[in-house]
Amino acid sequence: MAGTVAHRFPIVTSDLTIEYPPHGASPAHVAVRGLTLRVAPGEVLGLLGESGSGKSTIARVLSTLSVEPGPDLRPVITGGDALVFGVPLRGLSRRKAAKLGFNIGFLAQDAGSTLESTSTVAELVAEPILLRDRHFDRRELEGLVVTMIDAVRLPLSILGRYPYELSSGQRQRVALARALILEPTLLIADEPTAGVDVTVRAAITELFAELQRERAFTALVISHDVAVLRAVADRIAILYQGVLVGLGTIDEVFDDPSHPYVARLAESFHDAH
Ligand SMILES: Nc1ncnc2c1ncn2[C@@H]1O[C@H](COP(=O)(O)OP(=O)(O)OP(=O)(O)O)[C@@H](O)[C@H]1O
After folding, report:
1. Which residues form the ABC transporter domain (predicted)?
2. Residue 242 region, left (φ>0) first, then alpha (ψ -120 to 50), else beta?
């Protein structure tokens, strides 16, 4: 039974606990505690919570990025498990993580503002394909890049430009194009509108919603902005200090808040709208 559910749902977590191991003088830190949820195919789940509530930690683990070597301390699953496309992430080997990762797009926090400054837009958007297969046919690649740039509603004249020649909104569109070029079936987006000028935030949110409708990928969207999630998410999960304190549609969660933090959020959201 568990196997069937796990394969039908792109993301299944059961009693998932994630820790940062001890380092230097700092003891181990439990960032996420006992998280149980499922994300259905084609569903967009919004992850809401204040700073430090564990949102990015979940994104790192589910995107399998936490298995990759890097300078940062990596979060580790120490309780329960998370299954992505039916593959258990606990103790996942680097090789299996890389294979799974091809189906997962990741839009990192500040992705637009951290684009490699010495690469052109065309190079940046082509890069995920070339990293996977450096012998990929150049003409075909050019076609894919053009299609993707068009899909994120950018003019083709932008292809030869460098990130510093673009607006923050244009840079974020390029970052989105990079995250989607491999046509992932799951997209994990960490604060897709952070680092984007306030005036174009709504446009980026709308673009995200349109692309999701067109391509029907499953998505986990992290944001502390209820308005963003109202526009893109089917359901939201609310985290408070690493614990799930609300799960459902925005109306379900806010109309019947079972936790004081959710009640505060609901109040400020209703006041603003
Ligand atoms: N590399 C790390 N080592 C130790 N603890 C960490 C590390 N990264 C994050 N944490 C801790 O884990 C908890 C969750 O952090 P996380 O970045 O997931 O929160 P967040 O909800 O994404 O916050 P923000 O909205 O500010 O990005 C926090 O208490 C944070 O201090």
Report:
1. 11-266
2. left
Q: What interface predicted TM-score (ipTM) does this complex get?
A: 0.96
For residue 18, how far is its CA from the centre of ligand 1 (angstroms)?
A: 11
Phi, then psi, of 154 in degrees rounded to 5: -115, 150
The residue contributing the CA closest to ligand 1 atom 18 is: 54
Number of domains in the chain: 1
51 lines ligand 1 (CB under 6 A): yes
**Ligand 1 within 6 A of 163 CB?**
no
What backbone torsions phi and psi does residue 76 show, to the nearest 5 degrees?
Answer: -125, 140
**Ligand 1 center to 54 CA (angstroms):** 6
CB 196 within 8 A of CB 223: no
pTM of this structure? 0.92
Q: What number does the ligand 1 atom closest to the CA of 53 have?
A: 21
CATH classification of the domain holding 145: 3.40.50.300
Give the residue numbers spanning the domain of 201.
2-272
Q: How far apart are CA 12 and CA 85, in angstroms?
A: 8
